[in-house]
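Thread: "does anyone have the structure for this chain?"

Original post by V.I.:
We have the sequence but no experimental structure in hand. Need at least a predicted one for the grant figures.
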Amino acid sequence: MVAQCEPNSIDTSEQTQLSAGMRVMVRGQEWLVTKVEFNTLGNNAVTCTGISPLVRDYQATFLTDLDHIEPVDPTRTIFVPDQSPRAARSHLFIESMLRSTAPTDGNIHVGNRAAMDSLPYQLVPARQALSQPCQRILIADAVGLGKTLEAGILMSELIVRHKGRRILVITAKSMMAQFQKEMWDRFTIPLVSLDSSRISQVRADIPANANPFSYYDKVIVSIDTLKRDIEYGAALDASYWDIIVIDEAQNVADRGGARRAQRARLAQRLSSRSDTLIMLSATPHDGKPRSFASLMNMLDPMALPDPENYNKDDIKQLYVRRFKKDVSSDVSGNFPDRKVTQEQCRATAVEEETFDYLTNMHLKMDVNRHASNAGLFVTLLEKSLFSSPAACMKTIDERLKRLSKSDPTDATGDAEKLIGLHDALERISPEQFSRYQRLVAMLRSDSYGWTGKDTADRIVIFTERIETKSYLEQHLREDLKLPKGAIVSMDGQLTDIEQQGIVEEFGNAKSPIRILIASDVASEGLNLHYLSHRLIHFDTPWSLMVFQQRNGRIDRYGQKQQPDIRFMTIESSNEKIKGDNRILEILRDKEQQAYKDIGDPALLMGKFDTEAEESVTRQAIESGESAERFASRLAIPVQDIDDTGTDTNASGSGTDSEAQDDGIDLLAYFGIGEDGTITADDSDDSSENRGTAEEMSSVPDDSTARNVSLMSDYAYVTQALDVPEIKASAHIKSASTQPETQSITVTFAPDSPLRSWLRRRVPSMEILKEDIAEWSADKAYCDTQANSLVAQLRDDSWNRTQYLWALNPITEWVGLKASSLLYRRGEAPIIGIRNTRMTADDTIILMSGMIANDHAAPVIDEWFGAHYQQGAFKEFLTLDEVWQRTGYQGSLIPGSMERQYINRDDNAATGEQISQAQAVLDDAVNRSRQRLEVQRERYRKQSDAVIDEQLTRISVWQTERNAVIAGRPEAAEQQRHVHEIYEHYQQWVEQSYTASGEPVIRVAAAFTGVNQ
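Reply from O.Q.:
Generated one for you, tokens below.
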């Protein structure tokens, strides 16, 4: 398929009558419908859970073209008196029906209740995506703002809408475990980790022609695994997902190069295999609009007729980008202001001699390199020396090896000079290495306040070179006299499993680690802030983007202490070294200034690529540019950027052949104004202008839906497990509850069906270790658990206590049981109400009504009550009015003033009242269908406008796209492709927004008054 929203053409005359939550008869057995969706053959696939004893708990998917699926007729519902204390049985039954209702609006229903300190700005991406026909969005918030959590919020909203059964997450290998645990701990989304070996195991367990990507519904895979076209290409093409998430999406943009091109092809292939596509990136562009357009076209192939000529209005609905300062009011207390200190390190006499030798050294090998504008080798030596003498000696050793092969006689004399520098470097002992000595003194000082004894006070030291990392690890271990295991290091030479293991141990409160020395392999994406607020740059990056990535490891959402960031700076009397270090000081100052003023330091150089930024710094050093001139070039206002979005002075030459034909001001379309501040576009209505910062720091109060549940998640599960029928079906050996902490602990019998059911819905068997399940509805406690502290104290790699909320598998299981075991097929409770608002003549039939689109997805879904007096229809009541009239929504906790009048021992509905409810049922159902037809007409007037808007948009796109490709050699083929995309999307829009289904009525309960 070429469009991002998979359209299908099917006969929906029968199957739009089916919806999640309905009871149906299939093959002589009773089932509960859990999902209705299209399969790849164009038919309705109805996913059900068995209710009848023969198929109980068995999950199956039936195709409507092969099986006759008969919905239960609502007019045949038999009302059964609920005589349980405080109407407990009917409460659970009705609650299960309420929870199976899929929201049809764009409000936030569950995402704000995840196990996190939810902040208003974090809800914006989900709200923006839910307002679009397809949920396809780039979340491009700055480093540390919580893009993973924002993706989880959107995924949760889609799951509760029955649009998230199959999920594929693609990320870097080193990030897989972290992403996987974030999704489970905070959102109970069970992503199964797939690597090459796991996929091979799956293939061994399934038929040869089966698809390994169909084995699990929710998986996380590394991009390096998936990009192997020969092994997995066909399987990916045959897979379809509800949601695809691509982390670090800048790596799949079309930026040239064989490796990147391979990843871009993979992302392009996957972009058409899911209705929902979520991309995450803190650095989404490289300054070249064409590469950014490739991401936009993956999200919406009809957004940009001409990828080389577009503006922010064309794409504003597809991305969200904020910086810390844009959301400052929301993150107060969650994002303490960082403290940045430059530690001045006066060079020793031995170091000064080495600096003098280096700056006076002229290498003949650099003559040709200078002529070709390539980096000078002497600059590379200086850069490595600014890291450590060990790093510089390694650079020399590698070059001497090359020289011995290419010039055995050393005709140029370069080798002799390099050996002389090597000899000078060897004289810089640890005692003569000023930055190292300053580091040791600082770590020991009272003013720094670090002792190494506090398990929650750990240090991250970043260095660019592996040799420097090894040097620091060896000597700090000796000089600080820390216990074994207190210092660990991490670099790209370690395997991905080793890297992730170190990161987990660093965040483990029981581990002995106190200092992590890392190369820049640890600078992207990893959470190092749980037990650390101290970061030291032992060497200074030559790239502002590296600054940003490094600092973001501890300066990020969830940091509870003030980040303490230190730079080790060199003070030398050598004029060349002094000037070059001044350039690096400018970088440090500008990074901090940009962080505070515009949020993204990468905007200062306008290169959006670490290597390109390092080249800018290198050229400034090699040209002898003054610090003042360099500083002025890093303070460029937008008017100093040409219409290509490129700083004409950034390279010193004013030319950039790759960027000169790009036609978009990247700063402008990301909302950066001429004064460097975030701007709002006054021409756009605030409800539509979702890409700029004017609405990014807050969410309107009405965007979060009110919870209509009858009971809390904790009450729902605990009370269900007390019902004899439900408890017996679970085979629970023992259960205990702690109301004060809203916690539940259950021990399963070995043959427990519930245990088996849960094992298929958790990301790791360790979560159910020893046949014990633990749940807690305490959001704050589970938020702490998400930081892995509690698990670590128990030597678990996974948190054992699961967050008990709407999306937890146990909540889903309770819903299935409550809706199938409490009342038999065709039954519903009738509840006696003793209060002043209802009399014995009053009857209220509680129902839900739904109309679906051609995709069998609800577009109208509401709850209401039909009120009768003495058998005559009086009015329809909203759900809130039903609760107000009956007092039924009150707490089930004994002693509640609201609930004590319901279902006392002497107030059950009489036989006459039950007969009266049965007598009006046909009329109630018929009137409800008529009510839904009125709702359908009201909906149609609104949806027609949306359809017209979408069809006009894609029609304009088709015309403009054909004009762009006209005259090309392959124009005819491309125009056919354009027409194909147009027809697919046109069909999808019409099917999605047309309320074509027959009204579906579900009878939930009846209420009747009893005499006072």
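V.I.: this helps a lot. Residues 832 and 908 are 5 Å apart (CA to CA).
O.Q.: and The chain has 34 helices and 28 strands.
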